[in-house]
Each structure stands twice: as C-alpha cells, then as structure tokens.
Design a protein that fits this description.
Helix content is 20%, strand content 26%. The chain is an alpha+beta fold and 584 residues long. It has a domain of 317 residues: Methylamine Dehydrogenase, Chain H, CATH 2.130.10.10. The protein is elongated. The termini are far apart.
C-alpha cells in the first residue's frame, strides 16, 4: 500500500509539464499569424461586455440630465438595444443586456400633478406671507374659555355694543390687540419700514430712530430732526377742562386718582423731573435713561405724543419754556439741549464764554416765569444768568459756600439762592445786586428752596424739616394766629417762619406750590410714600390724604398742571407717574 501510494504522484508531475509547454509556442504563433477582422456579432458582444466611447458618453449625459426631450433619451438610452436592427433579441435578453443604471430613470416630463404642487414666486407669494403671519403656537383652550365683558369695569371698553357680554377666549385676545392698537398706533416710521431690518437694530441705530442727539466735539451745535409742535398738537386737541371749585377747605382734601400719566410708553428708570406744558395738556417726563417723553393727558388713557433720546445725557432737569415753544434739558454734563417744538430741531449749547471755569456742569437750572432769563447753578458759589432767548450770559450772582438750590421770584425780577449751611441770598437780576441776606431758622442743611408767587417761600432741609415763610409777615411784622398755629415776627436778617413742618423725617427732595398757591406739596425720596399736602394760607397739613393705600412709592418729582385744573403729577423712583385731581 505504501509503494503504490508513492508511485501515484509520478504521472501527475509529467502531466503538469506537458500542460505548461504550449504557452511559449502560442505566443510565437500569435506573433506570426495576422489578425482577422471582427464580424458584427463579435463587435456586438464586445460592446455589450466592455462598452465603448459612445456608450460611455451617453451614460454621462444621462447622469447629468443632459437630455432635452424624450427622443434624445431613446437615442442615448437605447444603445444596448439597437445592436440588432432585425429585432432578433427578445424582451428578456433586452433587460439582461441593460446596465444597472439603465433599468430606471427619473421622469422629468411635465404632468398635471406637478402643476398643482409646484408654484412660482408670483403664485405662491401671498400664501407664503400668510403662513409667516400665522402664530407659532395656538392654545386650543382659548376656544373653550368664556369671558364676561360686563362684569369688570376694565373690560367694558372692549364691547362693540352696550348689551354685549360673553365672548370666547380667541375673540377676547383679538379685541385686546385691537384696543392696544387704538391707544398706541403704529408710528409712521415703523409703518414705512414694513418689517425691515431697522426694527431689529440696537445701539446707535435705535437712538437715531428716536431722534437722538449725539454728543459732538467743539462748539458746533448738534441738530436733529424731531416731531414739531404741530404734529404733537394734532393728537392733543383737548385743552384743560377741569377746574377747582373756588377756595379749598383746610380741613379735608377731596382728591381722586386718574390713570397714570405714563401708563403707555413709560420709563423703567427713575423720574427725575416732571413739567406740564403751559397751554396744552402735555406732560414732560425725563430721567437717567436720557429720554424726554411727552404724554397727552386726557385723564383716561394718556397716550404718548412723542419722545426724544439724548445720547449719553442722563437728564437731571427738563422744563418747558414758559412760551411753550421749546424744551430745555440738561444733565451732569458741560452742555444742555434746546428742543425747538416749532421747527423740530435740537440745539446743543456747549459753553458759556468767559465762565466755563465755574460752569462745569449744567444739571441744575431754572427758567424765570416770564421766560426772559435762565439761571444756572455753578461751582464756587456762583449762579450764572443767561438770556433765555439767545442764551448769552447776562450776569452772575456770588454767595458764600456751595449753592444748594435756587428759585425765581414771582415777578421774575430776581432769585432766591440758598447755600448748604442755611444761608439765603436775594439777588436782583435787573440791578445785578444782592438786595437781602438772611438765615433760615434752625440753621439746617438746606436742600430745596422754592418761591410761591411773590408771597410764600418754603425751605426744606436735610433733616426733613420744612419752614414756610410769608413775606408779608415773617420779615419784621408781628402777628399771631393761634387757631392755625401760625407763627409771626422776626427781622429782615432773621425772619420767623409762619409754620414749621416736621411730618417728613428724611431729607426733603421736592417742594412745589400749586399755580394758585392754595396747596403746597412736600416730599422726600428717602422713605416710601413720604409726601404731604399743605393748605395755604392756613399752613394746615391735610390729614386725610395721602392714605396708607395711596401708591406713591419713593417720590422724586412733582408738577402741577394749569392754574384752574387741580391736577398734580407725582413721579417716583420706579419710573411711574401718578396723576391725581383735586376736586374740593
């Protein structure tokens, strides 16, 4: 068995040698025998298996979508089927002869379905806009809600008819939106923009849209366009109609609250100054947010009239000119702005020539009642007086110490100037001389000085005490009125107050006389709701108002409206402007 197994591999080796020999002989034969021409069948098979340049190019055209119509597709795509013109190849062989990418194609021809699904920009533009206006989310519960418009006073204004009561949640939302657009319509600049990128801009662009004024170097005036007085009065045609009925009683003050003066378009910063227009129901408010805001005061909605942003100028003082044609505003800067309401331009006064050394800030100023003069508190005890028309320097008053506050006389002929130590100077602008000097009783650190016409003068102190002086009795005339606890007597150098008010316990920040000098308002921002109303001439503090429920906050500004309106605006640290009307 072992020998036979060894003998078997022998023939296999010889066989392998025989099979390997013909290879070199075949190469020699091929080199010697000439090549024969290919017949049609051989060319067809070669083209079917290996392809050719024409088929390769046709395949590329199919991938690139290069066919313009169906006839081109048949010519290019039928290369594998057109080999036999007589049709000897049946349908099964045709499919087997096709390449994988030729077994299917994308139909690019026109069809009815495509017309419905595909729309050009002109046809589908409106629907796309409508889709953009659709809300991103809808609450299905809105349809299930039912709201009563008659039960709540605030919702009655949403009714279309007096008898209407119940509406759905969706309708309620639509009417709220409608009411908002009535009160606060879209500004012209926003409507003209039409949803452009301007509404999305911030920083300097938003300042320009609000009519902002940018600080410019040198002595050049910054002029910007702003709404004119005619445009403002177009939305404020209602003049003051409320009137105080005669003399007020000293025992009780009848006062009602109105809608907030800046309930729409208000401020998020403190209200530093408030002032009513001398002729029209417009309220000016401003603060550290560098924005002047005008509101039309109608007692109900008080819509905003316009606003002006003064870039990089936190406003400390802002007042209407007594003529009502302009607004003057200033902050802790070396310049102040004049907003001309007649032309809509803003002028920037950057320097008082010859007095720039002492006038380092223009944040505190007062306009005389007749509109002829403007007094500016300066450093080193100086008070500069300017012409309120040309804004040229007229004269200057000099006192001892630092100036605490200034106030014009009722006849606009002079100033009352108080320093930090309780000293008071009376400066006559016409003669440019100090005509009187006296000391506030108690020697308290003075914070506020205020004249009430030609008769009254009130001085507030750091301790919260307010002294009321009567120019007809406090400077040398002795009178007694025990029923009203009115003091009297004194001299020209040391007058006696007719009343010492101790109701406030923190520094007095605001003192304002009503236009008819029947009421004196005093307030302090050091404590919440620290405000008192004082009857004149009895100097009696009203006990029935404000109450513990009166939402005053920390009072920072007070302004009285026209002489016979009885309306007072009270601004606080939270940026709210409370409006009240004195009725009796």
């Amino acid at each position: 068995m072992g020998k036979k197994s060894r003998s078997k591999p022998g023939p296999s080796k010889s066989t392998s040698l025989v099979l390997a020999d013909p290879a070199p002989s075949e190469k020699k034969t091929k080199n010697k025998v000439p090549a024969q021409e290919k017949d049609a069948e051989e060319e067809f098979l070669e083209k079917l298996i290996f392809g050719d340049a024409e088929g390769f190019e046709a395949g590329l055209n199919e991938l690139d979508g290069g066919y313009s119509d169906d006839s081109d597709r048949e010519e290019g795509g039928g290369i594998a089927l057109a080999g036999d013109g007589d049709g000897d190849v049946d349908a099964g062989e045709d499919l087997q002869a096709l390449r994988d990418d030729e077994l299917f194609f994308v139909d690019e021809g026109p069809s009815g379905m495509d017309v419905i699904l595909t729309k050009g920009p002109e046809e589908g533009g409106e629907e796309e806009e409508e889709e953009d206006d659709l809300p991103a989310w809808q609450d299905s519960d809105d349809e299930m809600l039912t709201i009563s418009l008659a039960n709540r006073g605030l919702l009655r204004k949403l009714r279309d008819t007096e008898s209407e009561d119940l509406i759905s949640g969706k309708e309620y939302s639509a009417r709220l939106r409608r009411q908002f657009e009535r009160i606060y319509p879209v500004p012209e600049w926003a409507a003209a923009a039409g949803g452009s990128d301007r509404r999305k801009r911030g920083g300097s662009s938003s300042d320009e849209e609000m009519g902002g004024v940018e600080e410019e170097g040198g002595d050049e005036e910054a002029v910007r366009s702003a709404p004119s007085l005619e445009e403002i009065l177009r939305s404020t045609t209602t003049n003051w109609t409320r009137k105080v009925p005669g003399r007020l009683r000293p025992e009780k003050l009848t006062i009602v609250r109105l809608a907030d003066g800046n309930r729409i378009g208000g401020s998020l910063s403190m209200i530093s100054t408030l002032h009513f227009h001398p002729h029209h129901p417009l309220l000016l408010s401003s603060g550290p947010d560098s924005t002047l805001r005008l509101h039309h005061i109608n007692g109900t909605t008080n819509p905003p009239a316009t606003s002006l942003h003064l870039r990089n100028t936190p406003i400390s003082t802002a007042h209407f000119h007594p003529s009502g044609t302009s607004i003057i505003a200033a902050g802790r800067r070396k310049y102040f702005h004049i907003w001309n309401l007649s032309t809509g331009t803003i002028q920037k006064v950057t320097r008082i020539y010859g007095h720039a050394e002492v006038q380092k800030s223009m944040e505190t100023f007062r306009i005389s009642p007749d509109g002829k003069f403007m007094a500016l508190v300066a450093s080193r005890g100086f008070v500069n007086v300017l012409n309120a028309t040309t804004y040229q320097w007229v004269c200057a008053a000099k006192i001892e110490g630092r100036v605490a506050d200034i106030s014009w006389w009722g006849d606009s002929h002079g100033l009352t100037i108080g320093n930090k130590a309780g000293g008071v100077w009376e400066f006559d602008v016409l003669s440019e001389k100090v005509v009187a000097r006296w000391q506030d009783e108690g020697g308290h650190a003075t914070t506020v000085v205020k004249n009430g016409g030609n008769r009254w003068i009130a001085i507030g102190s750091q301790s919260g005490i307010v002294n009321i002086y009567d120019r007809t009795r406090s400077f040398g005339t002795t009178t007694s009125n025990t029923s009203n606890n009115v003091l009297a007597g004194g001299t020209k150098e040391k007058p006696k107050p007719v009343r010492v008010l101790e109701q406030l316990v923190t520094a007095v920040g605001v003192i304002e006389f009503s236009p008819d000098c029947q009421v004196l308002a005093i307030a302090s921002k050091g404590k919440k709701d620290a405000l008192r109303m004082v009857h004149l001439p009895s100097c009696t503090v009203y006990q029935n108002w404000p109450t513990s429920g009166t939402p005053l906050g920390r009072v920072t500004a007070i302004s009285w409206a026209g002489k016979e309106t009885g309306i007072v605006a009270i601004g606080n640290e939270a940026g709210k402007v409370r409006l009240f009307e004195i009725q009796a």
